[in-house]
Amino acid sequence: MTRLLVTSALPYANGPIHFGHLVGAYLPADIFARYHRLIGSDVLFVCGTDEHGVPITVNAEKEGVGYQEYVDRWHEEIRGFLTRFGVEFDVFGQTSRPDPHHRLSLEFFLRLLHNRRIAPREVKQFYCATCDRFLSDRYVEGTCYSCGAERARGDECRQCPTLIDPLKLIDPYCVTCRSTPETRSVTQWELLLEGYPKRVGGAPDDLPGGKSLQEWFDRFATRENLKPNVYSTVVTKLVEQEKPRARPITRNLRWGIPLSALPDGAVPGLTPEEAAEKVLYVWFDAPIGYCSNTILWAREQGDEARWREYWIRPDDAPGDVRLVHFLGKDNIPFHCIIFPAMLAWQETDAAGIESVEKALGGVLGPGVGERYVLPENVPANEFYNLEGRKFSTSDRWYIDPDEFCEQFDPDVLRFTLVRTMPESADTEFTWREFQARTNELADAFGNFASRVLKFAEKYFDNRVPAGGAKDLLDPAPVDEHVAGLGAAIDGYRLRTALDHFVDIARLGNKFFDEQQPWKSRKDDLEACGAAIRACIRLLPVLAGAAWPFIPRTAERLWEMLGLEGRPTWPGSTDAAALLPEGHLLGEAGVLVPKISDDVVAAEVEKLHRRAAEGA
RNA sequence: GGCGGGGUAGCUCAGUUGGUAAGAGCGACGGAUUCAUAACCCGUAGGUCGGCGGUUCAAGUCCGCCCCCCGCCA
Question: I want to staple A348 with a disulfide (CB 3.0 to 4.6 A). Which of A16, A352, A541, A610 is the partner?
Fold first, then answer.
């Protein structure tokens, strides 16, 4: 059976995430994963926090807390946020964990080194003698050489749009101690991306993994496979125009995966003194978190080797595992260019296996030297704004998730987010739209369930009515929508999929109106019962179709039907067997409450007030 | 300045490889109905598909130029 390995971009453990992150990377992946769980696929949904890098050290130091303590806190915060909105991962790990993450990352590093995909290079960097450390971009400020603004940061100016080369700053100073840094030469290792495929059908290079990467690229980087926004970014822009170049993968920093964990001599040219100051660059180790978190999952299952079922492919079966990365458009380059290259270039020879074993004292997993699964697709979303502006915690332009959940059901947010998901262009969340979409769900879907169940409760003793003609409701259009819904989710078109769901509810409403059971109950109870029965039996179909999108609501409906367990996929559900004549229904109630104008107006006001107070 | 993405009914947007007289939801208007969360159902109005030119028997859909918005990079 085909396995699915679903990932969401690892959130950075340096602050809260917002609805934009949710709609871009977590919600679509969750829906995709839930759909596949529902139809019985073998699916693993992997995520975790990305916990290294300079911004974290800057902020942790500002707060005066340890790095680990700092990222642990945000890890829990982010996990709480996602859990609250119904995103259910199989595993949610942390990249700061030495085992397995640090070890696996070093393994990646060593294999790339053995395969000649990594090389050292001399670069110049600021060094602060007072603090006794190298200063990365964010640790140095000075006067902007472009606009003359003071306190320009080492990565970007506060005034003008210039991306700063920190070495060119006028009167640079260390942000920590204010002293003037000196310029030092330092060796960093770089990932050589020149071997990345030039085009579909091109010739691979001769280094290990080159052929696999090209073969993957030929399948992956096509108009048929990728969404238009992803295709143009990857192929037109990054590959054809900019051409992937070398990128540094080590830094002199005290927070990250230390190269000193490797034995002396494992990296030619790296002295123990240098190793003690170096860590892997955060962008390099972060995506490896997908793999290490899978190991974590397997370990929790009691069989660590099971991670191989998802990540390591047999020699000749490229399509055995469908690896799908969900993320926002800012992450397209990493996941379409850099990470696949890192994976493909893990393929190595006996000498490569031996050198890694020697350095790490026995291999971490049995994956050494074997072929990693490469992504089937990267269905990236565009950006999501809030009432016309970017979500921004610093500008106080955001919606507090705690306050949100006190008032509203997270499921109606999920519904709204899918309805307005930025699948092909930037979109935005507005409270007015949220109200409209929520009420749409309440009217078309929630109200249908209510009218049907209350009818049964009042006139049929809260049981599935018996007697009368069979199959009054034509199943063909329903089946078509169910099939269309599944195909749309599988093709990463969630808005279309949700359209199908709403259409099924509309079919139900239309049928109900045509049958006029409120009339027939007076003169033809059999016909009335048959109509209501047909409507009742549409409800488990709706519950199953709804579950990937609005799981808790779908489960509530399931309960109202007096059914056990969770909703099942409509395509594999026999509604008549599930709800036989005489079946006792559960307690009917309001499935989706509507939102009134004054509530929405209050939220809009609250949003603007908070932003104004912060200014 | 370069690149990318947008510019389709009042609003939010769909429109796969060019081809049945341009679609949906919301909003508006009219009708029907009363089982239901004043919900549902039926119908009407409304668009020179940013502008100009080209290719084609046929273009919102391909090509060229121009205008406006957003983003990334200079």
Answer: A352
